[in-house]
Amino acid sequence: MAQDDEKTIDQLNEEADIAADYLEGLLDIADYDGDIEMGIRNKRPVVQIVADDDSDIKHLVGKNGEVVDALQQLSRLAVQQKTGERSHLIVDVDGFLKHKRQHLRDVALDAIDEVRETGEPVDLQPMNSFERKVVHDLVREEGLRSRSHGEEPNRHVTIYLKASAVDDEQNIDDEYDDEVDETDEIEA
Question: What Pfam families would the database entry show (predicted)?
Answer without folding.
Answer: R3H
